[in-house]
Design brief:
The chain is an all-alpha fold. The protein has helices at about 5-10, 15-35. Helix 1 runs antiparallel to helix 2.
């Protein structure tokens, strides 16, 4: 956990930051795949 997302997630919910990072990672993969195709 790092940055604003990690600090906000740890302050509110320990799993919130992990979920946010996971969602951002999935979105990044989808965007890169769409560009490659």
């Amino acid at each position: 956990m790092s940055g604003v997302v990690g600090g906000y997630g740890c302050g509110v919910n320990p799993f919130a930051s992990t979920g946010a990072i996971l969602v951002l990672f999935i979105l990044l993969v989808i965007i890169t795949r769409s560009f490659w195709i």
